[in-house]
Records
---
Amino acid sequence: MSLNSAHFLQRSRFEPEQFKTQQQYKLRNGTEVHIVAPGIIAFEPIQPVSPKSILLSSGVHGNETAPIEICEQLVENLLNEKIVTKHRVMFIFGNLPAMNIGERFVDENLNRLFNDSTAIDNQEQRRAQEIKSAVKDFFESDISNPSTFDESSRLHYDLHTAIRESKNEKFAVYPFLHGESYNKAQLQFLSACAVNTILLSQSPTSTFSYYTSKNYKAHGFTVELGKVKAFGENDMSKFTDVVKMLEELITEINLDLPLYENCPLDVYDVKQVIDKHSNEFTLCFADNIPNFTGFPKGTLLATDGTHEYRAKVDGEAIVFPNANVALGQRAILTVVPCEI
Ligand SMILES: [Zn+2]
C-alpha cells in the first residue's frame, strides 16, 4: 500500500497525529519508506550497494530554518522519485513545536538533552527520547547484513544555523573523540560543502552529534551553515555547495572530493568552555561582535558575579556567546588555531 507522505514536514508540523504510528511502504522505484514518527523518516534502497548509513538532522533548534528547508527538499525529491538514494538515509526534523512558534525551543534546549537521562517532563525531553530510540533502531539495524557492515560508514550531520554573524560563516564542531583519530575524508567532505572551519571539541557534551559519535561510532558533526533567518527568508544561493554535496552523498556511491592538501581548512581547538553560574553573568564585548573574533591575551571576556574570565593566549577567539542561556549551561566557548 502506498501512503501519500508528500509534504511530510508540513504534515508532521501541523497534523502530527497522522504519523503517530509507524508506517512503511515502497515507492514505485523500490525504495522502502519508513515513517518512524512525526518529523522522522527513513529511506532504504532496494538493494543497498554500500554499507553507508546516513543520518541528516535539522531543526533541533526550531528557528534555524535554512537546514530544515534543505532537508525538506531532499525528502520531497526522494518521495517524488526525482532522486533515488543509494544508501540507507534517515532524516530527523528535531523540534517541530518550536518551528511552529519560530523559536529555538519551547521549554528547553533540545541539543543539551542527548545524554543518559530518561526524563520526559517536557516536550523537548520527550522528543529527545523519541529521537534517541529512532537513531538506535536506524544505526543498529545496519548490522543486519554483516558482510557489508562497517562501523566507519555511519554518518551524522546535525545541521544548524548560528544566532550571530560569524567571520567564518560556515563551521563544524567535531565532537570529542576520546583519543580516536580525526577522519580526514570527513573534513574533505565538509570542505566540499564550503564548511572550512572546524572546531575540535575537547570534552564530552550532551549534543546530538556527540551522542551519535560516542554511542554509535558515527562520524558525527554539528554543522553551522550561517545566520538564523525566518522560513522563506533564506538566501538559498549561500547554500549551493552543501545542497549539492548532500544530494551527491545520498545518490552517489563514491564522492569526488578535493585532496586534503587542497582544502582551505582552518582548524581550532576549544580552549575554554565558560558556563553561566549566576544571573549576573555578563559578556564584556559588543553584542554584535561576530563569531571567531580574536582577542589579545588578558582581555576580559566575561564576568559572573566576582569571577572574571579572560583570554588565556593571544588570538583566543570567541564562539557562540549567549548570556541568555539557563544557569549551568554554556554561555561562551573560546578557541585557538591548531593543526591536526
Ligand atoms: Zn542550533
Note: Helices lie at 8-14, 65-79, 96-101, 123-140, 184-192, 208-216, 240-251.
---
Amino acid sequence: MRKILITGGAGFIGSHFVDALAAAFPDCRIVVFDKMTYAADIRYLAPLIETGQTQLVVGDICDYELCRKLVHGCDLVVHAAAESHVDRSFYSSMLFTQTNALGTHTIMEACRNAKAPRIIHISTDEVYGEVLSGECDESGEMNPTNPYSASKAAAEMIVNGYRHSFKLPVIVVRANNVYGIRQFPEKLIPRCIMSLIDGEKIPLHGDGNNVRHYLAAPDFAAALVLLVNKGVINEIYNIGSKEEHRNRDIAQMICEQFNTTFEDSVKFVKDRPFNDRRYSISWDKIADLGWKPKHNLPKNIPMIVDWYRKNAETIRNRQEIHT
Ligand SMILES: NC(=O)c1ccc[n+]([C@@H]2O[C@H](COP(=O)([O-])OP(=O)(O)OC[C@H]3O[C@@H](n4cnc5c(N)ncnc54)[C@H](O)[C@@H]3O)[C@@H](O)[C@H]2O)c1
C-alpha cells in the first residue's frame, strides 16, 4: 500500500481512522481530503503532518476535478466525509443531501474514473431506522427517518448503483453511535461534558429514554484496518458493540465524574421532530473476520472527561464560532 485517501479525515472518526491507518501502514502516504467544517480540527492530524506521513488537502468532496486529482494513484479510498449531526439536519437538510449524497456520488465517479482498486464507504446504523426490538443484520431493509439518515441511505443507494453498473470495488460499513475524544460537543457525550465544565445544566432531549449502542472510535478504527486487509469487496459490514445505554444513563455517568447528581445537573429540553427510540444491529459478520470491540464506555468516560477538561478552551472557541 503506497497511498491512501481519506475524506473527512480531520473530523472526529476520520482522525481516529488516520491514526490507525498510519500505525498499520507506516510506509504509506495518507492524504486527508477535508473541507474543514466546524467538525474538523487540523490539530488532530498535527503529529502525522509533522512526520510527513500525512498531508491535508482542504477542499469539498462535491468538487469533481479535485476529487479526480486526489483519487488518482490511490491504493485505497476511505470515504468518511459527511454532515453528521442529526439535529442540524432538521434545519439544513439540503446541505446534508448535497454533502452526503452528491458528495458521495462525486467521490464514486472520481473512483470509477481513476479505477480505484479498493474503496471503503462509511455509513451508519441509522439507515435501518428505528429497531424497537431484536437487531438488524446487513440484509435488513433501509428505512431512514430523518434528513441525516435519509441522506446516508441515499449515498448508499448511489454506491450500490456504482457497485452493480461499474463493478466499483466498494465495501460499505454501517456503524453504531461512535464515541471518544475529539467529537464536537453537539453529540451527546461531549455535550454533557462541556455543559458541566461550563457550569451549565445538561440539556437532554425528551424524556432521555432513547437508547443507543456505543462503539469506541479506536474500536471502529481497528475494524476499518481489518476490513482493509480482510474485507470482501461488495459486502456490507455492520460494526457495533453490545453496550446499549439510555441517554439519561450517559448523563448520569458523566454527572458522577463531576460529583454532581442527575437531578441537580440535567434539564429536559424539547425533543427532535422525530427521534428514533432505538437502533440495533448484529455484527456477527465482522466478528467472523476476527474483530470485536475492546473498549468499554463506563471505563473510558474518565479519560474522555479528562481530554475535554484539557481542551475545553479550544473546544469552547470552536463552539462559539460555529453554533
Ligand atoms: N459519529 C457517529 O456516531 C457515526 C456513527 C456511524 C457512522 N458515522 C459516519 O462516520 C463518518 C464520520 O462521522 P464523524 O462523526 O466523524 O463526523 P464529523 O462531523 O465529526 O466529521 C465529518 C468530517 O467531514 C468533513 N466534511 C464535511 N463536509 C465535507 C465536504 N463537503 N467535503 C469534504 N469534507 C467534508 C468535515 O470537515 C469533518 O472533518 C460520517 O460518514 C458519518 O456519517 C458516524
Note: The pocket of nicotinamide-adenine-dinucleotide is lined by residues 7-8, 10-14, 34-37, 39-40, 60-62, 80-84, 99, 103, 122, 124, 152, 175, 177-178, 184 (CB under 6 Å).
